Records
---
Amino acid sequence: MIGFLGNIMGSILKLVYSFVSSSFGSEPAQISFYAIAIILTTIIFKLMLLPINLQQTRSTKKMGEIQPLMKEIQTKYKNDPQTMQVKMQELYKKHKYNPASGCLILLVQLPIIFAFFAVFREPATYAFTEPGLYESMAKNFLWITDLENPDIYLWGLPLLSAVTTYIQSLTMGQGNKDPQAMATQRIMNYMLPVMIFMAARSFPAGLALYWVVSNIFTIVQQVISNRSTLSIKGAK
């Protein structure tokens, strides 16, 4: 599955690279065509997943809204599991919430995300398969001389990966009022960026660049979504 999807995603990266390289007369000094292709392909990828991500965001927000009501039912009927289940189903139906929707959406996304991850980790395998093509490409990006290697000097992209992951986790956690969920979210807000930073130090810098651009896209999407929700609530 990952190999099949990776070939598809790799074809998109190769197509974008070919478009970029043929559209410019000469390659920029600080940013290679390959770096530009990574940025544009990441944006295209996020746009492809946008409907699924928006659905997941709505599902998460709905879950946060009904969480206190679920707690009330669980407390009230803790000694009557059958009635608890009936009341839960009535609650879901009333608020038009499907508890399985979040998991299903995540299951749809994961193979695609893993495939895209594989493409940026091994671009010569999935995208630039012609002999010598990938090796001959310029892969510089600002202070990075080769996106194929980790950003080991300034750790700029690993740091940006961690910071944008932290900001993204903050925006994703807004609206959840459940104390237990909020406590778990706070722990993840700090643990996940540290894990991403440590991992990105050993990843190819091109993969870290993909992660940063992907995070920035998600942050902007989430901020717009949160503001739209607040505007709707204010109008009511």
---
Amino acid sequence: MNIRRPIPTAAAAGAAVLGLLALSACSDAGAADGKEGGKLSVVASFYPMQYLAEQIGGEHVKVTTLTKPGVEPHDLELKPRQTAQLSEAGYVLYLKGVQPSVDGAIEKAGVKHTTDAAALTDLDVAGIETTAGKSGGKSGGKSGGGNGADDGHGHGHDEHAEGEGEDGGHSADDGHNHGEDGADPHVWLDPVKYAEIAEGVGAALGKADPDNAAAYEKNADALVTKLKALDASFRDGLKNTTTKTFITTHSAFGHLAGRYGLEQEGVAGVDPEAEPSLARIKELQSVAKKDNVTTVFFETLASDRTAKTLAADTGLKTDVLDPLEGITDKSKGRDYFEVMNANLVALKTALGAK
């Protein structure tokens, strides 16, 4: 008869400690290689970056976004848990200047494979010169939310190598404060520039996860093809309109306006919650009359109070023009393409497309 001897308490405790250490080692190893469940762990700053990561990464990535649906990205303050997610990521995708708290956290996280999407395209508003400062006047036509041609940001693709990280991200001190001084960081609203970013993200993911580089390249090419088709739809849809001017409470559409020959009149600049001055209200009333403006646009993630007040004072209508900083139940679509197509419909109606 075999007698099973009890294991001494000290030995049992030692075994438990060894087990915990083993689990901890496995966890650390998973964090060290940037993988989660065999997939590349990707952290994206907010929706436009999340969408790129998901579409290009496909089945090979696990994407976490720092900005939950319904949260205004510009106001995001990171929680300790989110900061920890950053440090354990295998790849980080963000757009410098949109979210100051995120910019600082990413710099401190020191993740090897980090991409600043602003480094992957030309940040100047397409095809225009801008003359206004911080007040949020016309952009995409004459002034306001875009960078001027001589503001120091007019760099082409072959100039990005200097001062950037391994995957195209800017170094911490390169001076690109894209969200400040009235600059318009909303490059994803220009399908052409968003396509350029998509190509760069595909290449960067391939560096972070070489085993699946071919898949990332293929997915990026497919997304670029869809974005080119979207660009064609906007060009055709906005080619012949009664007016080229639209008014919006959030001066987020400088890149879109510049691409398609429109003029954006921002009520109060790039801050969607900013209150316009009385002088600006009077100016917009004059512009609306002179340029046959029909609609004041507002967005889903900010109050519509200013838009409705201005519209009531000028006899205009209101409608949604979505800057696509996040998708919620109120969004006119479930993803980037559906919302962009809804924006096109709204613009065609407001501008009197023929």
---
Amino acid sequence: MREIEMIKEIQRLKKEKNAIILAHNYQIPEIQEIADLVGDSLKLSKKAAETDADIIVLSGVNFMAETAKILSPNKKVLLPAHDAGCPMADMIDTEKLKDFKEEHKDAVVVCYVNSSAEVKAESDICCTSSNAVKIIKSIEADKILFVPDKNLGHYVSKQVPEKEIISYKGFCITHHRVQGREVDHIRSEYPDAEVLVHPECSPDVVEKADFIGSTSQIISYAKESPSKVFIIGTEMGVLHKLQKDSPYKRFYLLSTGLICNNMKKTRLVDIYNALAEEKYEITVNESTRLKALNALNKMLEIS
């Protein structure tokens, strides 16, 4: 089937089955163009909770599809690339989290959404990279356990110095591989450029940036900024939206290593197959779902 025919079939199946396609900003351009909504984890979470669609096709990675299912238990949630996981989410499980909590019994657990349903269920409240600072500030407790991303945890600790934030040792392998010297090198090539990075990057990269934010925040900032040249320190998928929104501006990727293989697994044919055959369906144990829902709802109420 040719691409144009496949796109028509996807649109037909979507209408026939009352389905919606949600795609993360890191997805390939063809997926972003076919999606009903493209956004960061917070935006996708909110849409999953609000949609009246019968089927949610989540074009991203496993934890995102799980989050959609937790928020919309009566919807059929499909993950087109069934093996699209998240290495950072895999760095922590319930046993590791329980051990972490045992070491710090008087702390509140804040869980980054880049985590499994089971880990969310063991946490007090969730956050995303776009609302992490706001979430931490809203918590009355002074001692916070932040899981699983140590880099986002470090960034938040600098923004909320009045609280003690103890971060788990996890990290995003894509963002973490970028090094501070790469910022120095690319700045020398483009001295007039603004450097925009994701807080999942290591502290030595974040400290050298002009702006730190989630994918959606980076996209908004670049669109509104009077600057004409930008160095982008997050997964390369955002370049599609950046260039689309601001065709007369120039965008350069901070590092050639900013490619997430899991985010690049989904293709148009996977979207088509997911809709045509209604695969691969995501399920979450109900007791786990209810506990995780509590943590997610607390986040959404504050957001």
